[in-house]
Amino acid sequence: MDCDSHILLPGLIDAHIHLNGMPSLHALLASGVTTALDMGGFPLSDLTPLCSLPGLPTIRSTGPAASSPNGMHSKLTRLPTELLLSSADQAAQFVADRVAEGSDYIKLITDVPGLDQATLNALVEASHGHGKVCFAHAAKSIPYAMAQEANVDVVTHVPLDTRLSLAAARSMKSKHRIAVPTLTMMEAIVLKLPRAGLTYEEARESVRELYKAGVPILAGTDANTFEWSLSSVQHGESLHRELQLLVGAGFSNIDALRAATVMPAKYLGLEDRGAIEVGKRADLVLIEENPLIKIGATRSIIEVWCGGVLAKEVKH
Questions:
Q1: CA-based, 20 to 30 A from 152: which of 47, 176, 304, 305?
Q2: Which residues have a Cβ under 8 Å from the Cβ of 229 and sit 6 or more positions away?
């Protein structure tokens, strides 16, 4: 391939989206996102046909997240009652059902009110028993601490109410936790729904501490187009914003790029992608400008290849 002095990147990976049909896939592709993790697709049977279409982004999914009848998320998403947990003895069956449906990962919601600590612990234990990486939603300090106590693998979002201390970040590092801060969504929530005690600065500074402590941080956006969402975030374009916000939280440009390529590939079982190497999947993004000089250059897209298929040739 002759790049003619342009920059060739691996296809970008968004570690937190909510897919909403074919338009979402095309929006991701147009922005160079060739792999994305759906965090809560329900029913999973509707999502599965969209997960591996030739020339379109690969989607991996948790299926529906474990939540409680009195949690905010269960009320927003209107999940059927059979997917809502009231006690720890329901955890093993919930996880077994998700595995049987084909979920790639397991997700649980930590919130107050919400699942109690015993149920969170049981969900994580059951997930690990099936060899599944377990994600936890946590956007405030108490739920964030509950996710840590439950021994989850990945915490998605960061607290908007209290910044994480460096000691807390170092504890996450020592326990091999992974963070997906979704700063794009944190910023959007504060702008759309300003509330006393919730600030974007707390989220940004938490990421700064996580980065200083060496916690693996993956780029994710919480992109969605659902009417019930607290804040809609555009698929694809939002990942470029996420990279800018990571740099604003102290990341070097190269580490921001790694957060959307090699890091999610390494930590989320996507070893066949995330880098430009012989034998890797041909997910590629050709850009005009140098993102090591200016991170916003990732938007200067010339061409995208997904699984070796040039994006403009996709007919779906």
A1: 47
A2: 18, 76
Rounded to 5 degrees, φ, ψ at 205 are -70, -30
Cα separation, 290 vs 298, in Å, equals 8
Give the separation between CA 101 and CA 95, rounded to whole angstroms: 10
Nearest-angstrom CA–CA distance, 123 and 174: 22
Rounded Cα–Cα distance for residues 209 and 141 (Å): 14
Question: Rounded to whole angstroms, how far apart are CA atoms 231 and 222?
Answer: 9
* 213-238 confidence digits (pLDDT tens): 999 999 999 999 877 677 789 999 99
Residues contacting residue 73 through CB under 8 Å, at least 6 positions apart: 65, 67, 109, 111, 137
Task: Find residue 109's DSSP bridge partners.
Answer: 137
For the stretch 118-129, pLDDT in tens is: 999 999 999 999
Please state the separation of Cα 230 from the chain's center in Å: 17
